[in-house]
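QA checklist item 7 of 12: single-chain prediction sanity check.
[x] sequence parsed
[x] length recorded as 263
[x] structure emitted
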Amino acid sequence: MKTVVTTAYRTTDALVMKGGIISRDLGAPFISRNKRSVGKLHEELGADILVVAKERLEFYPMGKTEPFFFHPNSSAFRTKRPLEEDPLIEVSGLGIGDSFVDCTLGMASDAIVASQWVGNEGEVVGCESHPTIAYVIGKGLAAYDKMPHLSEAMRRIRVIPADAVAYLSSLPDDSVDVVYMDPMFTEEIAEASNFLPLRETADMGQLTGAWVGQAVRTARKSVVLKAHFRSGDFEKYGFKRRVRPNTKFHYGVIDCRPEKVPE
């Protein structure tokens, strides 16, 4: 599905100028809003709509009336707790100064937590295969200023608009400390509402042997999977499941430190 860039309903010259820049960045056409609703634009253009608003970018996939936009989401409260007790940090063995690849960036909540933990000496990369979603998240991470305690962590994250397997394949052996994957759950979780506008648009690709193999090849410390508690991927791909009572998702870990798992 193609994407078209436009401005907020009440537009300004500044928004039009910004829209032109974004249009060039994405290689997507810029269309004057002319006071048309998003629904009308969907109907007339048959395209996803990226709206340039005053304070944020709003992405409306075809047929959706609720926008997707960047927000720190769960990282806002997770980073106010002791980070060494965060389940992701705990199970992954991620250390201060380490490198972390988030194969499924989503709202970037996990990447923000990881970035806050690894600090200035660390490195966090997030992969997002949908170019418009990657753009919205990248610009949001660079500009969001309503949570000052997260600003540095957000600015450090490098967003890669690419398929995770392709990106991992480009990396040398043992080049990343932790590789993390959180594929879109096949069973919808009602509490995970922030990503709902994208459920039919985001990459629904599920775990594969090739994906896990590339993750194990590149990881020095661990490969971590987050999945629905009913998922069979933990056992299928050799992850040691970490059961989390009274939660709808579990983590699984492949420890890459003792010896590399053969392909």
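[x] summary fact logged: Residues 13-26 form the longest helix (14 residues).
[ ] second reviewer sign-off
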